[in-house]
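Design a sequence for this backbone.
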């Protein structure tokens, strides 16, 4: 097997741009076109208008609220990150404070493509995996950054803030969702080290169902230990055991046709 063939064998195991080949001093035309398509998809993910109403319709959950940050438009949002971390005064005034276990926030972030594709389905999985929690009304925030969850959770009186957000697109994935979990969030005070993150949630990365299961474990642990962030480490074996137990339960509850 030649060196070239060995490199091409690696390409079967990764979406990374390896074994692209050469045409003189440049790339083959097909590879250049693939690169330009990936770059266009990444740009579209960042610039694409976010249809919050469509996400709310797909979620189909009574009481869902549509909110706006202080970002006045997409350009303002991209050029001034801080405006995406706080609610507009009108949106904040629309929230009624209560006493909730958790607040689920869906935000477009840097990839509305990701939230359009997976936001509602992922939210359904998260809510169904944690049915005993006293959930605040689900909120969908346009032009939001991760920290918008702090503002919303505090305004609603929620112990935990959970943010589903479109991650910065790359040249191999423009549809990845990030999940951020924060205990006792405090706007402008909570740091990133006080959050837990589950990243690259998409069909080609971490499966939505697996991400929701990992989050359920983290939420349970966070409420028990009353913290999130670098001091809260996921126990992969426990998560795997829960997943295997649920899979077994599904198999045992499935009616068997025929047989002995």
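Sequence:
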């Amino acid at each position: 097997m030649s060196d070239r063939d060995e490199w091409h064998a690696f390409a079967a195991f990764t979406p990374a741009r390896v074994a692209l080949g050469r045409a003189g001093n440049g790339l083959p035309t097909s590879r250049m076109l693939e690169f330009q398509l990936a770059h266009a998809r990444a740009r579209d993910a960042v610039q694409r208008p976010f249809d919050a109403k469509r996400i709310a319709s797909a979620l189909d959950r009574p009481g869902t609220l549509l909110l706006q940050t202080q970002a006045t438009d997409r350009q303002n949002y991209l050029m001034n990150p801080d405006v995406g971390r706080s609610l507009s005064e009108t949106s904040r005034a629309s929230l009624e404070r209560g006493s909730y276990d958790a607040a689920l926030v869906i935000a477009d972030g840097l990839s509305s493509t990701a939230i359009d594709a997976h936001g509602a389905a992922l939210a359904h999985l998260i809510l169904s995996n944690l049915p005993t929690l006293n959930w605040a009304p689900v909120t969908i925030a346009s032009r939001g950054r991760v920290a918008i969850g702090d503002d919303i959770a505090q305004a609603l009186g929620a112990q935990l803030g959970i943010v589903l957000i479109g991650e910065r697109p790359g040249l191999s994935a423009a549809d990845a969702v990030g999940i951020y979990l924060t205990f006792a969030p405090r706007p402008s005070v909570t740091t990133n080290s006080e959050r837990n993150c589950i990243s690259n949630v998409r069909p080609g990365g971490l499966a939505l169902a697996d991400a929701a299961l990992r989050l359920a474990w983290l939420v349970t642990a966070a409420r028990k230990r009353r913290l999130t962030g670098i001091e809260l480490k996921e126990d992969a074996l426990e998560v795997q055991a829960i997943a295997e137990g649920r899979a077994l339960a599904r198999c045992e509850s499935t009616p068997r046709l025929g047989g002995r």
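Confidence is low (pLDDT under 50) at residues 254-260.
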